[in-house]
Amino acid sequence: MKKYRVKIEIRLKPGILDAEGRAIEKAIERFGVNAQNTRKGKIIEFELYAKEREEVESQVKSLTEKLLINPLTEEYNLKISDE
Amino acid sequence: MKKYRVKIEIRLKPGILDAEGRAIEKAIERFGVNAQNTRKGKIIEFELYAKEREEVESQVKSLTEKLLINPLTEEYNLKISDE
Description:
homodimer; alpha+beta; 3 strands; 42% strand
């Protein structure tokens, strides 16, 4: 068994209004910095023991799509590294 | 003026209890995947026009430390790319 580090980045899809991102953008503007297209996303990271990278990838894809994201409004990308 | 894309990753510091990360880990376990050290972080992304990368870097460092993170409990890393 090998230890894998998993990093899942979850973002709102481009067309979806990001209310939190807008609030952050206004705060950044008040700070004097002219930010545009501000978006807020999530990172979920964990470690996992498995025999093969392919096993990790298929498990993590499945759990991300079924459990961690809302496929109507969110998209994700996946990084898997071994140690 | 050049357009820069800024990505700020914000994580709880290693010693800080991550209650949300634990809740996610339990959900992942119920899904049948044995995740460990599950942590939840944030991504804040925006675009910015500036003359030089150094200018962007110092502005974004300052606003991140003063506005976006809680320096007692959170740490961050910064990626700046130009187009």
